Amino acid sequence: MIDADYVRDIEPGEVLIIDRENAARGAHENFESVQMRQRYGVNQCIFEYVYFARPDSKVFGEMVDKVRREVGRQLARESPVPDVAEGEKEPIVIPVPDSANTATLGYANENNKRGHPCHFELGLIRNHYVGRTFISPGQDQREMKVRCKFNTVEGLLRGRPVVVVDDSIVRGTTAGYLVDMLRDSGATSVHFRVTSPPVTGPCYYGMDFPDPDELLANQFDSVEEMRDYLGVDSLAYLSDEGLREAVDTANHEQLGYCTACFTGDYPVPVDTSDAQQKEAFEWR
């Protein structure tokens, strides 16, 4: 928006010093760079590709749009659209806007390429004046935001099997209400596909993920139980291996990624004891 030229990313642990003297010389090669010592290597947040970043952003050396399309294609290879009964209409595939839009394009295209016919449609319309729901404090406030955040296009949904593609399920608040809305709009069946693995761990590095007990995946022992809780006809997540394979396919730079919210493997040690958390809260 400011008509700047992309030069390069500032590297993890790098301090780039731009002062009047070196800025006056113009060329970015004159800027002083200091690299801090690394104790645990580099582990980029893979959730940037899944959800946080805008699709028109360049993150970790690659366009987010490109990565998300490949993530959607990988999900189609692992969990294609369901088969429909004879005489039933082909399923429509709809994203939960906006973060799942480009991944859903990849998902729908790969399904059709592999002989699983489906139509990409925009069956959910998002109100852009409502913020993110999973970081809103209080369950009542999150539920109200979900009601205000989305509306269905009933004419597209009525009488059709619907496959919903979302980037993640955190507490399950949004997913549960969306399923009810789709059924109320006349969908004959609702299937949920998620372009990331189940979220099982909080993020201790700055993102406000909730307490582990609030995470949907920690409240049930299987995907089938989560499916029944959400009230969908089928539920499938992208595997840990599939997510990493898709990211590596789209971004040829071999990078280290943090996947702690999916795997519980925290690259930088964290003290999760109650005493440590209580001390941190009191300090704030």
Most strands sheet: 5 strands, parallel
Going across the major beta sheet, what is the strand order?
7-6-10-11-12
Level of helix content? 25-40%
Low-confidence region ranges: 278-284
**General shape:** globular
- The helix/strand series, from N terminus to C terminus, equals EHEEHEEHEHEEHEHEHEHEHEHH
Note the beta-strand portion. Answer: 15-25%
Number of helices: 11
Distance between the termini: 35 Å
Q: Tally of extended strands?
A: 13
- At CATH level 3, the topology of the largest domain is Rossmann fold
- Indicate the structural class: alpha/beta
Known CATH architecture of the largest domain:
3-Layer(aba) Sandwich
Number of domains: 2
**Cα Rg:** 21 Å
The CATH class label of the largest domain is Alpha Beta
Overall residue-averaged pLDDT value: 87
Account of the 3D structure:
This protein has 2 domains: 1-38, no CATH class; 45-262, Rossmann fold. It has 284 residues and is of the alpha/beta class. The protein has helices at 20-24, 47-52, 64-78, 101-113, 139-149, 154-157, 173-184, 223-230, 240-250, 260-263, 274-283; strands spanning 14-17, 32-35, 44-45, 58-59, 62-63, 92-95, 119-120, 124-126, 150-152, 161-166, 189-194, 234-237, 257-258. α4 links the parallel β6 and β7. The chain is built from 11 helices and 13 strands.
